[in-house]
Amino acid sequence: MAPPRLRVLITNDDGYQAPGIRALAPVIAALGHEVLVLAPLYDESGVGSARAGMVGRPIRTATLEENGVTYIGVDGTPALAVTLASVGAFGRAPDVVLSGINRGHNIGVPIFHSGTVAAALTAAGQGVSAVAISIDSDDPDHWPTAAAVAAEALTWIVPEPAGTVLTINVPDRPLDELSGVRHASLAPIKRSRVVGATAPTGEPMIELEPPLPNPVSDSDEALLKAGYVTVTPIVGIREVKDDAAATALAKRLS
C-alpha cells in the first residue's frame, strides 16, 4: 500500500530563501506529498516561540518559485508561520511539520531558544507532530544528507501519537559516512557555549565559545561529535503535577 499523501508544512528560522529549506522542500515534494513552505522573510534565529504582534494586523508576505515549489516568506517568526498555517491562513492545516534544515546544530538544554525547535513545539501545541532538523555546520557541504534523514523521520513520525516532536541533528557528512543513528540526551545547561562579553564600543554582548573537549557521554553534543545522527524526543511547556507551590503560597496569603 502506498503511503498517504500528506500536507507537510516546512518552515525554519533561517529565512524562506535559506539553502536548508530549499534543499529540504524538493525532497519532500518528490515523495508525493503536498508541500507548504512558510518561513520568515528574514533570519529569525534564536527567537524561540515568539509570536509578537501577530493579532489584529496584516502580515506582509513574499514568494519565491523554484523547481516547482513555492516558498512563502512571512514577516514574523517561525512560530508565527506555524500558527498561521495551523489556523488555515494558507489553506488546509498541515498534517505534519518539518522545521529546518537549520544551518548549525541545535543541541543541549538551551534548544528552547531555537526558532527551529520552537516551531516544532508550536506545532505540537496545535496537536500536530513535528520534526526539527539541524545540520552540524554553519557552512554545510552535505545538505542532501540532512534532507534524506528528514524524509525518513517524516515517515516514522506520521503514525505516532499526535503532538510527537523530535529534534534531530545530522553531521555534515555524506550519507554513507555517518556513524549511525542514536537516541541522545540533551547536553546539560552547564555545557552551554553562551558567554557574556563586551563589544569594542563598550556595550554588552553575547558570544559563543568553542565546543568543550569532553562532552557528556551519550549527550547530543558527544554523539554528534562522534558522527552520529542524534534523535531526541522533546515536549514543550507542561504542568508539573505537584500542588506544593500553590499550597505554600495560599498559606502565605491567608
TrEMBL record:
The keyword Hydrolase applies. Its EC number is 3.1.3.5. Keywords: Hydrolase, Metal-binding. InterPro entries: SurE (IPR030048), SurE-like_Pase/nucleotidase (IPR002828), SurE-like_sf (IPR036523). The gene is surE. This is 5'-nucleotidase. NCBIfam families: surE. Belongs to the SurE nucleotidase family.
